[in-house]
Amino acid sequence: MKKLYCFLLLTVSLSILAACGSKSTEGSNAEYTLRLGVTQNEQNAEYQAIFQFKEAVEERTEGAIEVETYHSDQLANIPDLIEQASIGADVGTVSDAAQLSDLKKEFSIIQSPFMFEDTSDIERFVESDLYQEWVEEFTEQGIRILSFNFQLGERNLATTHPVTNAADFKGSVIRTSGAEIVNATISAMGGSPTGMPWTEAYPGLEQGVIDGVEAHNTAIYESSMYEVINHIAKTNHYQLVSALIVSEKWFDSLPEEYQEIVLEEAKAAGERASEMSLESSIEYEELMKEAGVEFHEVDREEFKELADSVYETMGLQEIRDEVNAVLGK
């Protein structure tokens, strides 16, 4: 019943959104249509990347595949899009590992606290046989991971009060995506996680409902979050790397030559998003400092020790050992 309800809800939503997002020209003779939605706004690297994906796929398939792109949760939020894709709707999104872990628990290890030293470790893991096994198992859940290379930056604590150590952070109400691994991480570090849509975080901070968010520089700056937070603690509790995902049913319906195009352009989109995010992160940090936001270097080992309990709480100890073995640690 839940899946039927979600499917009907998406159908109605897509009808309402007929005037939103990017559309192909009228009179299109497209044989296949894909709707991609992301949380961030149109200036964000995620959206710019999926728009590049749209243009490249439409050009290379000579219009046989039509891609519509939506920003700012216009299409639906990420959990809803994942749910819709899993039951066969022609939709997709850019999702982090934490939100995909609802379908496959092991995937949450990629977004576990202090798991990887840097993005190069993640890149090595993504090339491993173990990761490829996980990706194949996602198809059984109705999801096709086209690429997992959207490197969007380090996640830090952006708050209304200074956080220079774990004691400062204790009891802070922090907006999260609601993903279990993220909530567990914030709790272990001493905070009080509250899941809410990203679009509600700004008014939540403005009204004092929450004390901060855990986010990366591009998301903070491009959502004007720096107007309602005063401090950013550079915990770098994990590197945010996301996947471009679509419905396995939709992907499987494509001819083989179109599947290759979609996969190639998904990878290219992730590379573009990563380049833009790196450049923007450095620039935005300086701009936020000029706007009065204070950045604090913290003892990451202190937070790391606290967060280590997450692996036992979430039952990820064995998976962590497997991944570390792949990385030779």
TrEMBL record:
Identification of the protein by name: C4-dicarboxylate ABC transporter
Annotated signal sequence range: 1-18
UniProt keyword annotation of Chaperone present: no
CDD domains assigned: PBP2_TRAP_TM0322_like (cd13669)
Keywords, alphabetical: Signal
PROSITE patterns reported in the protein's UniProt record: PROKAR_LIPOPROTEIN
Lineage: Bacteria, Bacillati, Bacillota, Bacilli, Bacillales
A Pfam entry, by short name: DctP
Biological processes annotated in GO: transmembrane transport
Record organism: Oceanobacillus sojae
NCBIfam families reported for this sequence: TRAP_S1 (NF037995)
